[in-house]
Amino acid sequence: MFAINWLSLLAIGVSLLSVCFTWKNYKRATYDDKVSFNIVQNLWSDEPHYILYNESKKKLRQAPNPTYLMLIPSKVYFNQKDISGNIIRQSIMVFSPVSYTYVLKQLRSGKSIDDIETSYLPLSFFAKKGERDIIKSEKLQKCESTSYTTVETLPMLVILSEIVYQFWGSLKEYREYILTTPIGKYNISSLEYDAMKQYIRDNYKEEVVNVTDKECVYKKANEKVIEFVKQMDPKRASFLGGVDGGYGNILKKINQLISPEDPLIKKGIGNYTKNKIKFYGILFLVGKILYCY
C-alpha cells in the first residue's frame, strides 16, 4: 500500500488552479489589448437608436467619429409552376438604402471605451423582432398565370461602418470595417465595405425617402421594392446585384448572416440547393412572371 501524500496533492491542485487563472488572465488581457467595436440597435423604443461601443478596455487616443451606412433588407420570392405542377421557388435579398439625414441627433459620451456615440432615429424606425412583424406583400400577379412574386421586408437595419482609430500614446492609424444587424456583428474586409458603398451609389433611386413620423419606414421600403419588382427595368438590375462582378460576395454574405436558414430550403419546396441560386436564372424567372404586367 502506498501512503497518500495529501500535502503533495494539495500543492499540485493549487499549481493547476494557478495555471488556469494565469491562462484566463492572459486571454482577458489579450482580448482587452485589441479593439472590438460593435453597433447595437435598439429600435424597439419610443426613441429608436443605435449605439457605437468599444467592447474592449484598450484606451484609444480619442473617440472614433465614423460614418454609418444604413440599409433595410427585403427578400424577393419568385414562384412558378413547372410542367409537373410543382412550385419552383427562388429568392434573392435586396437592400434599400437609408439616407444618413434621418439621424436626428448624435450624443457622444466623451469616452473611448464602452458606449462612445448614440445616434437617434425618427419614430418611423420603431421595430420589433419576430416573424409576425415581417412586412409581407400580397401575391404580385396580374394575369391568369400561376406565376407570382412576393416581397418580405425585415423590420431592422443593416449598418456598416469604417472605424478609424489610434491607440493611446500612439499616432499610428488603424481601420476596422464592421457590419451589424440586430442578430450580430461581423467583421468585413475593406473590399466588401467598398462594394457596399458602390451598391448604395448604384441604387440611389431605390432609397427610402419622404417618410414621416406617422409612417413606417419598413413599410415604405416594402412598397418601394414592390414598385421595383413590378417595373423590373433592366437598367436597374444592379438592385438585384446584376452588375459585372456582382459586388463580390458581400450581398450573398449578408443574406446568409440575416437568414442562415432560408425558409424556402425545405424538403418538397423548390428544386434548388442552398447558396446556389444563380442570378441569371432568377432574372429569367422574373421575366416569365412579370410578362403578365
Question: Layout of helices and strands, plus pairs?
Answer:
Elements: H1 6-32, E1 37-42, E2 49-54, E3 67-81, E4 87-98, E5 105-108, E6 114-120, E7 135-136, E8 148-153, E9 158-165, E10 174-181, E11 184-187, H2 190-202, H3 217-231, H4 250-258, H5 279-290
Antiparallel strand pairs: 1-2, 2-6, 3-4, 3-8, 3-9, 5-6, 7-8, 9-10, 10-11
Features:
4-stranded antiparallel beta sheet; 5 helices; single chain; 7-stranded antiparallel beta sheet; alpha+beta
What would the average pLDDT be, to the nearest integer? 81
Helix-strand makeup class: alpha+beta
Give the % helix.
Answer: 25-40%
Question: How would you sum up the major sheet?
Answer: 7 strands, antiparallel
Q: Could you give the order of the helices and strands?
A: HEEEEEEEEEEEHHHH
- Domain module count: 2
Helix segment tally: 5
Structure description:
The chain is an alpha+beta fold. The protein has two domains: 1-32; 67-99 and 127-290, no CATH class. Helix content is 26%, strand content 27%. The protein is built from five helices and eleven strands; from the N terminus they run H-E-E-E-E-E-E-E-E-E-E-E-H-H-H-H. Strands 3, 4, 7, 8, 9, 10 and 11 form a seven-stranded antiparallel sheet that branches. Strands 1-2-6-5 form a four-stranded antiparallel sheet, with no helix packed on it. The longest helix is centred in the first third of the chain and has 27 residues, at 6-32. Mean pLDDT is 81; it is low at 26-32, 261-281 and 288-293.
